[in-house]
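Budget justification aside, the reviewers requested a transparent look at the raw inputs and outputs of the sequence design task funded under Objective 1. We therefore reproduce one unedited record. The lines immediately below are the C-alpha cells for a 77-residue chain.
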C-alpha cells in the first residue's frame, strides 16, 4: 500500500480509495490525518509564539506595518 505525503497508508487504486473514504465517512475507520494535522498545527503555534518573544518591539511593528500595507494594497511595502 503506498504512503501519502504525510506517511499515511492510502490505497493506490481509485476504487480502494473510494471504499476507504466511505468507511471514514460512516465511522467504520478512523482517519489518521486528523491527529497528524492537529499535532503539526500545535507545533506551528508554539513556534510563532517563540518567534514573537525573541523579536524586538520595533521589528514586530515593522512586520505588522508591512503586512497591513500588503493587505490593504498600499504602496511602500
Amino acid at each position: 500500500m503506498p504512503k501519502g505525503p504525510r506517511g499515511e497508508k492510502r490505497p493506490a487504486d481509485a476504487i480502494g480509495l473510494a471504499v476507504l473514504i466511505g468507511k471514514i465517512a460512516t465511522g467504520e475507520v478512523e482517519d489518521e490525518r486528523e491527529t497528524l494535522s492537529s499535532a503539526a498545527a500545535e507545533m506551528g503555534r508554539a513556534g510563532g509564539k517563540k518567534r514573537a518573544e525573541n523579536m524586538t518591539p520595533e521589528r514586530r511593528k515593522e512586520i505588522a506595518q508591512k503586512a497591513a500595507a500588503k493587505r490593504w494594497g498600499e504602496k511602500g511595502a
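The chain has a mean pLDDT of 81. The radius of gyration is 21 Å. Computational costs for records of this kind are itemized in the attached budget.
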